[in-house]
TrEMBL record, chain A:
It comes from the Bacteria. It comes from Mameliella alba. Gene3D superfamilies: 3.30.70.20. This is Ferredoxin. The keyword Metal-binding applies. One of its GO terms (molecular function) is iron-sulfur cluster binding. The keyword Metal-binding applies.
């Protein structure tokens, strides 16, 4: 499969210490209009939300609706 | 996660509403209220809680017709003139007559509107003639308030399903084919009526930042409504009347002159001088904006730094909380302080959006399209300049009419082969081992849109665009490749975007005159009322390509005097005003 792996910095960051995906929370994933967030399992088995696809409208429901304030929406680098 | 599964389920409902943004929820609520026994399904490719153009909220109603401030006659006249005369006034007049009732309902939902000390609605003047702009200080609560109503009314909500094609039979609507955006499983919905509220074609042009999702419109509004209506055989009106908006450069969000204008802010050139009389968006205003940018007097700015501290604080409070709150982050990142600097503006990429212009699926004053049982409302339907309140109000009309329509009909029979053909089309990119990813198909399409379709429009450039689009289509149909169901959603969006790009070129070539200021500025042609005072209707031709016809503008309900017709053509500030 010749698809390239091109690095990109993503606008949405999640503070793993605050994220409660472990407890089954998927609020940020659910509310994203572009469906770009997912839950990842880290090496120690804990779960955290992360931005899987760099397809962000920087609209902010993920940040506004997060119950613990774990999510931050930055501007995509190309336009900030 | 996001793996591609094989599956097909069928469900039946009375009314299928596609799109859970603004028009869709109101349509569903109204239909259910009128006929509580009706099974109403509201479907969205995102999650209804936060989907659509007003995902984070809205800072105000831009077109409220409130007794004591404006009349339906005055509003109808204003929008007719602002849209260069090409509109069937019945839809605008009905909107203007009934939108006040919708405002009161929204108020009951808990969405508050700004009131003055006497408890009266605090309506502001932004348009050229009348007073229609009503601020929403808690506009960030709109979606949550709507969602509560949907739950209360027991509307069946289906999230993360993307409608890909409409089904028709017996000369009317029969349902829709949908695909799950997380699993690629199919859902065929049989419905007696279908209401489309799929928003603008907002991912048509490419923003100057080059970021595919840095669009003016919510980037999830990628034109599926236009594409599905086209493939189902519905008529689309005046697609050449593009949407182009003034915005904050790079951030690409609204500059919100409608908020800042009534508080003393204005659009200025590099010298800090006013050059347009009125900040209300029209093609004529955008032409002046474009001329200033191109004519050596740019950059163009939103000027607030002459205002008092308390005014600026109030503007910040509104603009940084509702509609596009990352705007505050953007300014902070660049060290822009409204008190000190002016805010650099630009013009947006092109799109289809009747919310601000007039390009859309053709509908009448009941939100009926040209296909019986199929309705459209909001940014994708052709009621001009209808903004958020238009989406709510016309959505309500669609829901009310659909509730009556289903009383007399059963499900229309459709050809099963259509479902199979659609499954094959949708899944084709999943059947390959290698190929072009959807983001490259999309980028190329949109880059070509900018190169060749952005006004001023030139015949030879638009014809080149058509050739290039055909090449991209060949690549897309023969070689697009996806690895998971999320990419499959993007592939389907790329297909809608390409359909819209082809329609934009074709519609623009058909109307051989200039109209709507910058929106349809064809440099080789002047305005031609004798031959082109009409709608253009685009349909899918027998050869599978866009076909065009003229359709008369229905006789006006509200007459426009000769000296009123040009109110929006004289936007440039005269020398004496500029010097003030």
């Amino acid at each position: 499969m010749p698809l390239a792996q091109t690095a990109t910095t993503v606008p949405v960051t999640v503070n793993a210490d605050l994220c409660i995906a472990d407890k089954g929370c998927t609020v940020c994933v659910d509310v994203c209009p572009l469906d770009v967030l997912r839950i990842a399992e880290t090496e120690d088995g804990s779960k955290t939300a992360y931005m899987k696809y760099d397809e962000c409208w920087y609209c902010m429901p993920c940040e506004a609706d997060c119950p613990t304030g774990a999510v931050t929406v930055n501007l995509p680098y190309l336009l900030k | 996660m996001d793996e591609i599964l094989d599956g097909l389920t069928q469900i039946d409902c009375d009314i299928l509403v596609i799109g859970g943004g603004t028009a869709g929820p109101m349509a569903a609520l109204k239909a259910k209220k009128k006929n509580p026994k009706a099974n109403v399904v509201l479907l969205d490719k995102a999650n209804v809680k936060r989907s659509g153009a007003i995902s984070m909220g809205m800072d105000g109603l831009n077109n409220s017709v409130i007794p004591g401030y404006a009349t339906p006659e005055q509003y109808t006249k204003e929008i007719t003139v602002a849209n260069d005369g090409i509109c069937d006034q019945a839809a605008i007049y009905r909107y203007a007559s009934e939108c006040y009732g919708i405002i009161q309902e929204l108020d009951d939902f808990g969405i508050r509107f700004q009131k003055d000390q006497n408890g009266e609605y605090d309506v502001k003047k932004v348009h050229h003639i009348g007073t229609y702009v009503l601020p929403m200080p808690n506009g960030d609560t709109v979606k949550k308030a709507l969602y509560r109503q949907l739950r209360k009314a027991r509307i069946n909500i289906v999230n993360r399903y993307m409608a890909t094609r409409l089904l028709t039979g017996e000369g009317r609507i029969a349902g829709a084919v949908c695909v799950n955006t997380r699993t690629a499983e199919f859902l065929v919905v049989r419905a007696k009526a279908v209401i489309m509220g799929l928003g603008a074609a907002g991912r048509l042009g490419l923003p100057t930042s080059g970021y595919l999702y840095g669009t003016y419109e919510n980037a999830s509004n990628s034109g599926e409504g236009y594409a599905m209506a086209y493939h189902a055989g519905a008529g689309l009106a005046n697609l050449e009347c593009y949407q182009i908006n003034p915005l904050i450069k790079d951030y690409n969000g609204p500059a919100c002159a409608y908020v800042a204008g009534p508080m003393g802010g204005y659009t200025a050139n590099a010298q800090g001088e006013r050059f347009i009389e009125c900040d209300y968006w029209s093609g004529q205003m955008m032409q002046e904006f474009y001329d200033e940018l191109q004519g050596g007097k740019g950059p163009v700015y939103l000027k607030l730094n002459h205002l008092a501290e308390e005014t600026i604080s109030e503007i910040e409070r509104v603009l940084h909380i509702v509609e596009r709150p990352t705007r505050g982050h953007f300014h902070k990142g660049r060290g822009t302080d409204y008190r000190k600097q002016m805010i650099e503006m630009h013009i947006s990429e092109i799109g289809f959006c009747s919310g601000h212009s007039a390009s859309g699926v053709f509908v009448d004053e009941h939100a009926r399209t040209t296909i019986p049982g199929l309705y459209a409302a909001g940014d994708m339907a052709n009621v001009p300049h209808n903004y958020m309140l238009g989406a709510f109000t016309n959505g309500a009309f669609a829901g009310l009419d659909a509730a009556d329509f289903i009383a007399d009909v059963d499900f229309a029979a459709y050809d099963e082969a259509e479902v199979e053909a659609e499954r094959a089309r949708v899944l084709a990119p999943t059947k390959r081992d290698d190929g072009i990813p959807p983001n490259q198909i999309e980028y190329k399409t949109r880059r070509l849109v900018n190169d060749y379709l952005q006004p001023p429009k030139v015949t030879a450039k638009m014809e080149l665009a058509q050739q290039r689009f055909e090449e991209v289509r060949e690549d897309m149909e023969q070689g697009m490749y996806v690895r998971d169901s999320h990419e499959l959603m993007r592939a389907l969006e790329a297909s809608s975007i390409l359909d819209c790009a082809e329609m934009a070129a074709s519609a623009s070539l058909y109307r051989t005159e200039s109209r709507w200021g910058l929106y349809h500025n064809r440099v080789e042609y002047d305005r031609d009322d004798e031959n082109w005072f009409c709608h253009t209707i685009l349909t899918k031709g027998d050869d599978g390509k866009p076909a065009h016809r003229k359709q008369e503008v229905k006789p006006y309900i509200v007459e426009i005097a000769e000296d009123e017709k040009d109110a929006y053509n004289n936007q440039r500030v005269g020398a004496s005003v500029a010097a003030e």
